[in-house]
Amino acid sequence: MNRRQVLQEAWYIRKRKVKAFFYSLPFYVCRVFSVNPHKIVMWTLEGKGGYGDSPKYIAEEINRRNQGRKETCEIIWLTDVPEREFPSFIRTVRNSLWNRAYHLSTAAFWIGNTRTVYGTRKRRGTVYIQTWHAIVGTKPIGKHRGNCLPRMARIVSEYDSGMIDYVLSGNEWSNKMWPDGLLYDGSIIQTGVPRCDVLFQGKEQMHRKYRVKYGLPQETSILLYAPTFRGGSQSGRRSVTADTGSLDFGKLIDALEQRFGGTWYIFLRLHPQVAEESYSIIEGETTGRVIDVSQCADMNELIAAGDVFLTDYSSSIFESALMKQPGFLFVEDEAAYVKDRGELLFQLEELPFPAAHDMKSLLRHIEMFDQTRYEADLEKFMKTIGMFEDGMASGRVVDFIESIAGKPDKKAR
Fold first, then answer.
1. Per-residue model confidence as pLDDT tens digits over 351-389
2. Residue 334: which CATH number?
3. 179-190: b or e for each residue (b if 16 or more CB lie within 10 Å)?
4. Is 0.90 topped by the overall pTM?
5. Which of 169, 273, 316, 409, CA to CA, is 20 to 30 A from 242?
6. Helix (H, G, I), strand (E, B) or coil at 273
7. What is the CATH number of the domain that holds 11?
8. What's the total number of domains in the chain?
9. 224: phi then psi, degrees, rounded to nearest 5
10. Which domain range does residue 213 map to?
């Protein structure tokens, strides 16, 4: 960065720190209220997400155990859109500053899949469990981004990790990656990741659910296309964009039908931070076979409902691989992405997923796809990373929560 950029960054960091100080004041005010030992606060994607990811599956296991008990857990869900669909046993709360301050300050447990807001304060008597929103990934995070990690991002990550008591893991690779990836030096519990449970137990149910929801015949096959977001990694303010590049949905559908047979549809799932941009992509689509599912809260239900997975750098492809779904990578902007984000955590040739840098190569990969060879490559890769997901993670996490309930936490601010 040049001198001007350095000064701009320094000014931005100073402004964020001042904002965080004033943001923290309501948390101190709310310490006049005692911690409720039966209260659990959850969130997804900093409040932007709905009822999904690992917090959802933990909540459902807690609710199952609540049945018939005299003392039950109260689950508070912080969300920017409390009007979204949530089950009756969840109490949704608008994700405002004072609501966050009160409920986080009086909860025995925090369970989230992303960072808290910079300036959040955690008191003694509260345990923070970070589930994170990926089990394995190619996209670099934390220190793995090298010089591409902005100073402000590092400050926010270190601040949040300073409050985390436990991080979940579903494989040996994550055990080794989390310290630098999350800038975290605390306890890692090897329970598996609850968001993956539906991939082992819910395939048939999700197959029916999403075909009924979108009026598709049950024999319809689905490719789930879930690109990650772009942009803003080095600037002061983060901005994100969605871009499908030169992907041709019509040719993609033709290739799928020629290789696998049957009638195929594409589910388009943009990252929640750019989900509103899906309309512009669908608007120019002429096949009538592309369905926008970007507003669906639970990504893993969509994976379970699908038959093939396509992405660029999204970690979700590793979760579809747990079901042995064919997975493909469309990475035509790899050089630009690495320059902006940092070196990928895996070289593409290390992965079991065929990677294409243009549409012609993607179509060829689909045409030549060999399921037997693919499953052999998957098995080898899963052994290499020490995968131990088995669909029973939610139960283990709640067992762990019950085992430490009422015990002193390790970190506070």
1. 999 999 999 999 999 999 999 999 999 999 999 999 999
2. 3.40.50.12580
3. bebbbbebebee
4. yes
5. 169
6. helix
7. 3.40.50.11820
8. 2
9. -95, 115
10. 200-385
